[in-house]
Design brief:
InterPro entries: Aminotransferase_I/II_large, AspAT/PAT-like
Number of strands: 13
Protein name: Aminotransferase class I/II-fold pyridoxal phosphate-dependent enzyme
EC number: 2.6.1.1
Keywords: Aminotransferase, Pyridoxal phosphate, Transferase
Cofactor: pyridoxal 5'-phosphate
Structural class: alpha/beta
CATH topology of the largest domain: Aspartate Aminotransferase, domain 2
Distance between the termini: 46 Å
Oligomer: single chain
CATH class of the largest domain: Alpha Beta
CATH superfamily of the largest domain: Type I PLP-dependent aspartate aminotransferase-like (Major domain)
Strand content: 5-15%
Number of helices: 15
Strand order of the largest sheet: 2-8-7-6-5-3-4
Number of domains: 2
Bound molecules: 4'-deoxy-4'-aminopyridoxal-5'-phosphate
Amino acid sequence: METSQRIARSQPLATTAMHGRVDAMKARGEEVIDFSIAISHFQAPESVLQAVRDGLKQPSLPYTTVGGDAGIRARLAAKVSSENGIAASASEIIVTNGAKQALYQALYVMADPGDAVIIFKPHWPAYVTTCKLLGLEPVLVDLPATVSAEFLDSLPPAKILIVNNPHNPTGGVLRADEIERIAAWLKRTGTRAIVDESYEKLIFEGVHTSLAARPDWQQIGIVSIYSASQSYAMMGWRAGFAVAPSNIVTAMETLQGPITAAAPMLIQLALASAFESGEPMAMLHEYRQRRDMVLDMVHGLPWMTMRCPASGPYLWGDVSALTMDTKQFAEELLNQYAVALMPGDALGAPGFIRIGYISDDIATLRRGVEAIIRYGNARYRAR
Ligand code: PMP
């Protein structure tokens, strides 16, 4: 059967496509080490599991209002107010099935086809793919080491700026002065912002500052997105939310109503409990050990430079010294060594590779990185 022209023109999301390929290989009984995305092997916090058990004892689990149960939204408003410094009321919160749904809906209701959306690169592939699905114009701009006023003034006019802080894939965390400059620029230019703070709980060094932590966030037009996926190792729960001016929340509800309606009540309970469970210290401790182990392993390789990331579940390696196509790097590594990773091409940065280092156990991580090193060494010698 033919598909619509609209979807025929679209590409699947590179990260989920690679992950799907790995899953299919595993289903055929092949052994693959998967660094293509970051899927935590941690369980959700115990308080989340308890909230779900308690939820199951309720006489029924009804539909809630599309944007989420009023009590849940109030709890999430309290979270962003106390932790992020964003003064928001329950009517400025919308619960979604993960950050991806919040992103799609925010872009849909904030911009019209043809509108420009600035995305800093390297970037999470979903920003570009979602813009394209919606007929928006992604404008990719290299993210500099420091976000200066001069850099911001050099940006082209756009309807929306997407800010991913903490940043996937580099692990960078914007400093407070950079956040302040972005806010001033948004005000000066009238550009709106979508801020994806999905990695806010995975910070090793530095302090996370929310762009919307200011009294005029509604006037500037800032939408902040949060997710339990990475912050609490709850990828498969599909639990996230957005904080937005109330008219934007209402518009997002108009869109969400006929698609998923409200997020499942059990998931709403899990989401609020997750964000009330504090910092995921044990998880962070283990992630840091893994990060440092891999950095030690690759230290001194002549063909790869890898900076120590301040946050997040990824390592971002510059392999441009290999002078090869990084899509080919990923293909050969998967086919010859059964290790999957993301080539930087999909993230707007050919010449780089991204390793999601939190899936599987440490021994598997070590084996996978050893395979990458063997492959890279061979390619380096063959240059
Ligand atoms: N934003 C970014 C930048 C991400 O990398 C991820 C995880 N891949 C998410 C959000 C999480 O999305 P979701 O909440 O839909 O799982």
